[in-house]
Amino acid sequence: MELKAKGFTSIKALLVEDIEVCRLVLSTFLLRLHCEVTPAMNGKEAIDLFLEGKKFDIVLFDKDMPVMTGPEVINSISSSIWHVFI
């Protein structure tokens, strides 16, 4: 499920957060910055999105999540992207 800001969108953001309230707050903030937000509830969902060929300009990870933590996901996908900022 992708959330799109009204008007133009220039930045595709993946938001990986297991706590619903945090996901809602961060999604709202990103939408106000005209981002197209794709939420994921855990690291496994994030990796599945990358394996499906989805591309993102920015990825925000929760450090501590069930299934896979943010750092574990970064280690798994870092070979498929050019640069990662932690």
Automatic annotation (TrEMBL):
Keywords: Phosphoprotein
Pfam family, one: Response_reg
The Response regulatory domain, residue ranges: 12-86
Signal peptide positions (record): none
Keyword Protease annotated: no
UniProt-listed GO biological process terms: phosphorelay signal transduction system
Keyword Ubl conjugation: no
Modification 4-aspartylphosphate occurs at: 62
Name assigned to this protein: Response regulatory domain-containing protein
Gene source species: Aegilops tauschii subsp. strangulata (Goatgrass)
